[in-house]
Specification:
It is built from four helices and twelve strands; from the N terminus they run αβββββααβαββββββ. By secondary structure, the protein is an alpha+beta fold. The chain has a single domain, classed as Alpha-Beta Complex (paralog of FGE (formylglycine-generating enzyme)). The longest helix is centred in the middle third of the chain and has 18 residues. The chain is globular, with a radius of gyration of 20 Å.
């Protein structure tokens, strides 16, 4: 009778660890800048923990009063979409468009960013994506997809830079999709005057595309006139001052195809009522640990 050879404990542990990593593409839950992983049909870039100055310095072209700089510390790394959520991803995950369907005048096709979605609909996409990823075992239960906080968004946009954009203090049409006027006179090509397919322009230093221009992106936070500083700021449930009509607004970031270059700066921020939709507002997701 053939003798069964016993495997050493270290070998069995190594096999288990390997099988767990194959079953869970985000394990271990960490990465490196410029690392991209495909998780639940979303290409994600790693943003490490760190500290940065949120907002813009005095004298930056186009600076607004609500961009006063504040120091932010993010204690947890997170994954962020390499691209804005596309129309193809929307129909795959959710199904039908919630209001108007995308159309050619604003950019239409599976590789174009989704728009005409309000804040709650964007959050609904994240919840459905999380449920699918948990069900398939691709994402651990303590992690979830959601909209980025305003601090996470700017941190990912800057990718370690301190200039007006992640590529410097000038922005031209060869670098991002925006309307006629470039930032600081860097006019180097024609404007598209509608959304373009995601990933048509060079990524920032962490490999993330279209953080400047194309479509505005919903953030998780309520709008506050002062930037949220401190450690891991999250204003998802903390309302700021009401608008003149008594309504409250969420934050949108990044500029869009119908804005000029100065509005595509890393620090630029705008308020928008969460129940409204527009032809130039979409979103991207982050994958984060709960709590």
């Amino acid at each position: 009778m053939r003798e069964t050879r016993r495997r050493p404990v270290w070998f069995l542990l190594a096999v288990v660890a390997f099988e767990l990593q194959c079953r869970d593409p985000v394990a271990p839950i960490s990465g490196a800048p410029n690392e991209v992983r495909d998780v639940a049909g979303m290409k994600l870039c790693w943003c490490p923990p760190g500290r940065f100055l949120m907002g813009s310095p005095r004298g930056e072209t186009g600076r607004r009063p609500d961009e006063t700089q504040t120091e932010v510390t993010l204690t947890k790394g997170f994954w962020i979409g390499e691209f804005e959520v596309t129309q193809g991803q929307w129909t795959t995950i959710v199904g039908a468009f919630p209001d108007k369907a995308p159309s050619a005048p604003f950019g239409e096709g599976d590789e174009f960013p989704v728009y005409w979605v309000d804040f709650e609909e964007a959050e609904g996409f994240c919840r459905t994506l999380t449920e699918r990823a948990h069900g398939s075992g691709e994402v651990p239960n303590e992690w979830e997809f959601r909209l980025p906080t305003e601090a996470q968004w700017e941190y990912a946009c800057r990718a370690g830079t301190t200039t007006a954009t992640s590529s410097g203090d000038a922005l031209g049409h060869a670098q991002a999709n925006f309307a006629s006027a470039p930032l600081n006179g860097n006019d180097d090509g024609p404007a598209a005057h509608r959304a373009t397919p995601v990933g048509r322009f060079s990524p920032n230093p962490w490999g993330i595309c279209d953080m400047h221009g194309n479509v505005f992106e919903w953030c998780r936070d309520w709008y506050h006139a002062e930037l949220p500083g401190g450690t891991d700021p999250d204003l998802r449930d903390v309302k700021g001052a009401p608008n003149r009509d008594g309504t409250f607004s969420r934050v949108r970031r990044g500029g869009a195809w119908n804005d000029d270059g100065w509005a595509c700066r890393s620090a630029f921020r705008l308020r928008y009522e969460p129940e409204r939709r527009a032809d130039h507002i979409g979103f991207r997701v982050v994958l984060v640990r709960r709590g």
